[in-house]
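Hi R.,

Here's the chain you asked about this morning:
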Amino acid sequence: MGFWNNLFGGDKKKERSYHNKLAWMSWDIHNHLLPGIDDGCQDTNQSLELIAGLKDLGIHRSISTPHIMHGVHDNTPESIKGAFAQLQAALKQGDVDFELKFSAEYMIDDQLDHLIQEDQLCSMPNNYVLIEMSYLAESKALFSIIKSLQEKGFQPILAHPERYNYYHNNFKIFEDIKNAGCMLQLNLLSISKYYGEHVKTAALTLIRAGMYDFVGTDMHHTRHLEALKGLVTKYDVRELLKECPIRNATMFEKNHDHEKKIA
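And the predicted structure, written out as C-alpha cells:
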C-alpha cells in the first residue's frame, strides 16, 4: 500500500531525476505542439521548447493532435498539414532529431458526424481517432459517434475520460464505453493533483481497474512540461500503470485489422 499512499500523501523520499523517465512511452499520442492553430503552442519557438522538454523526458516521437472544435478551433486536414510543415521545417533547420506525425483531437459536436461520413478526418496511422467531450456536459452522441467511426473502419480513443466530472459517480459508464469498442487515453498529469483531487481519484480508479489503453501528455505549454517533470521525479509512472495494457509503443505497428489507407 505504500506506493498508493505516496500518490495521495506525497513522496518524501529524495527526488530523482526526470531524465528519460517517460522513454517507455515511445510515442506521445496527445499533445498540442503544432504552432498557431489552437490553444497550444503559438509559434515554432514554443513548439521547439516543448519538444526539447519531451526529449529530456525520453520521448522522441510525437503525434500532434490539435483541436478540431466547431466555432472555436475550426481546423481542417489542410490547416493541420500547414502547421505540421512549418514545425517540420523548424526541426530540420535546427537539426533537431525528433519524429513528428500529426492527427487531431475531435470534439464530439454537431459537425463531427458529418466529417466522419464525408471521410474528412485527419486520423492517426492504423486508423486511430482521438475524440473528446466538453468538460461541462456529457455528449449524448458519444456512443453513436463511436459506432459511426467503427463503421468507417476507425478505432476511436476517448481522450482523458478521468476529466469528465459528470462521470465521477458513474464508473459503469467507463465499462460501457470500453464494451462499445472505444479505447481510453490517460492524461499523465491526472495522476497528480494538476487537474484537481477528484480527477486524480478517477484516474487512479481507472488505473486500478486496468482500463487505460494509451497515455498522453496533452501538453499545451511550459506549465504542463514543468508539472510533468515534477510528476515523473516523484513517482514511477510505468510501475503505476503495470495493470493497464498501454499500447503507445506498438500502436503504429502494421495492423491487419485496419486496411484503410492513411495519408
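Residues 77-93 form the longest helix (17 residues).

Let me know if you need anything else.
M.
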